[in-house]
Amino acid sequence: MRVRFSSVGRDPRRGFTLIELLVVIAIIAVLIALLLPAVQSAREAARRAQCTNNMKQLALACHNYESSNGSFPMGDHIGRNNNGQPMRQDFGHFVALTAYFEQGATWNALNTNLTCFVGANSTVNSIGMNILWCPSDDVAGLRCPNSDPPDPTGWDNAYQPMTYSSYAGNMGPLPYHYKDTKLPQSNGIFNHHGGKDPATGNVFGPANFTPIKISAITDGTSNTILYGEHAHSRIISQDLGDIYGPNWWSSGDWGDTTFSTFFPPNYFKTFAQANQATNPQAPPQKFPNGNNWTMTATSNHPGGCNFAFCDGSVRFIKDSVSSWSPNAVTASGSQDNWVYTVNQPQGVFQSLGTRNGGEVISADQY
C-alpha cells in the first residue's frame, strides 16, 4: 500500500526581507572598505617599484656616459639660434644620455647646430619616453599640443610639441637666479654653464662651470644624490600659470630637468604661505621670485620621493628629512640678482645634495 505524503505545512520558498537585504549590502560595503585600501596600497607599491626601476636605469645610463666621456653630462648646453648667435640654456642632459638608454635615434635626430627650441628640432622635443615617466605622475606622458595656445613657442616662433619628464638631475642646494657668495655654489652633479644671455644681458647663474667627473664626488657616491623625482603633475597643480611650462624633457633650463636641494622634498605641502589662506590655489611663494618652489623635488608617492644616488642605489627620502626651514631663509635684491641669507645650519637633505661639502652623514639620518 502506497503512502502519500502531503505537502501541507511546508514553508513555501521566499526571498530576502528588506532587513536581510540591507544587512547583506552593509556586509559587502564593509568588505569593500576593508579591501580597497589594500588594493590601492598594492597599486602604489607597483607604481613605486616601477619608478625605482626607471631611476636605476637613468643612473646606469649616466654612469655609462661618464665611463665613455670621462665626466657626467652638463645640466644644460648652450645652443644657437637660426642666425648662429649663441643663446642661453638649451637642451639638457637627458638629450645627451639618449644613446645610453636605447634612444640613439633621438640623438641622431637632433640638429646640434641650432638651439633645441626651434622647429627643426621639434621631433626631438615631442618624443615621449617611458623611462622618464613615473607611473604615479599621471600627466607626465601628456604631449603639449602644437596648434593652440598655451604652447611653448620656439626661438623661431615655431610651435613646439613638448613632452615631459618626472625626473631631474641634482644641481646642489642652490636657489633660482641668485648672486650670492655666502651660499654653496652649484656643487651638485649637473652643472649649468651660467653667465649672461647675450641677447638680453640677463644673468642666469654662475659662469664657466665644467662637467663633473666621478672623482669630484669626494663626499662619497653613496652620500650624494644623482637624480630626484620632479613630478610634473605636482608643479602644475600648484601653478596658476602655463601648465605646459615646467619639466620639458629636452630642456636644460633651470627647473626643467634639474632640481635643487635648497628646500626639502615637497616643501610646498608643509610650508604654505599667507597668500594661500585667502587663495588655496595660489603657489606657495616664499620669495618675491617664486620660481624656487618649482625647482624642488616633488612626487605623488605618499610621504616623500625616490632618489637615485651616485652609487646607483635608489632610496626613498621622507618629506620630514632634516632640512633648514624655508622660514629661516630671507631674500633681498631683484630679479636675476637675489641674495639669500640662511639663518640655520644646512640639514641632511642639503648635505646629500653636495658632492664635495665634507659633511658626515649616516644612513639612519634619513
Automatic annotation (TrEMBL):
Domain DUF1559 residues, every copy: 40-321
Taxonomy, superkingdom: Bacteria
Record-linked PROSITE patterns: PROKAR_NTER_METHYL
Descriptive protein name: Type II secretion system protein G
Native source species: Aquisphaera giovannonii
GN (gene name): xcpT_3
